[in-house]
Design a protein that fits this description.
With 177 residues, the chain is an alpha+beta fold. The chain is built from three helices and six strands. The strands form two sheets. The protein has a three-stranded antiparallel beta sheet. The structure holds zinc ion.
Length: 177
């Protein structure tokens, strides 16, 4: 399986998953569609400005391999939706997303997420796994509400709401608003 990913600045938020595709051709087509969308005047790119990064859609939007879970792959060829598990790690005002796997069964995805969260070292930076459901072979929205909500996996550290994706994550050493 292939994943369409838009890399964004670690200071702005986590990478965006724009879809999961059964073929490379399907993913490339969706990539072209996504890039073309912002080339037209009527769509404003919500990620047009990012700290410490020159935004280039052709460089930032990429097709990557995604591991399809073998334990719940029964009937995967016909699956219309998959649940993607990603691991997020936060530190120094940055957030990094690593896409782990795609699951046909949500229960299986949850199990995998719990497994990954348990494996996280509590002494290091906050690390947690989040789920994102996507339609197979379709370009997904890049709207923040369509992506996993960063910080929702944290129980204490981000109780102040600083994990909200709506505003850029505060940089280390930056002044209070
Ligand atoms: Zn699975």
């Amino acid at each position: 399986m292939k994943a369409l990913i838009r890399h964004i600045s670690e200071y702005s938020g986590a990478d965006l998953l724009l879809g999961v595709f059964t073929t490379d051709a399907g993913a490339q087509e969706a990539r072209a569609e996504y890039i073309a969308r912002y080339a037209r005047c009527c769509f404003r790119d919500p990620w047009a400005r990012q700290p410490y990064r020159r935004v280039s859609l052709t460089a930032d939007v990429a097709v990557d391999r995604i591991r399809a879970c073998k334990s719940c792959a029964t009937g995967a060829a016909r699956a219309k939706h998959v649940t993607v598990v990603s691991v997020y790690s936060e530190g120094f005002g940055q957030v990094v997303r690593e896409i782990d796997s795609a699951h046909v069964l949500r229960t299986c995805a949850k199990r995998r997420a719990a497994e990954l969260s348990q494996g996280a070292d509590s002494r290091s930076f906050p690390k947690y796994a989040l789920l994102q459901e996507v339609a197979v072979d379709r370009l997904a929205s890049d709207a923040p509400g369509n992506q996993p909500s960063i910080g929702s996996g944290l129980t204490s550290a981000r109780a102040d709401g600083a994990g909200s994706r709506k505003k850029p994550i505060k940089r280390r050493g930056s002044a209070q608003r």
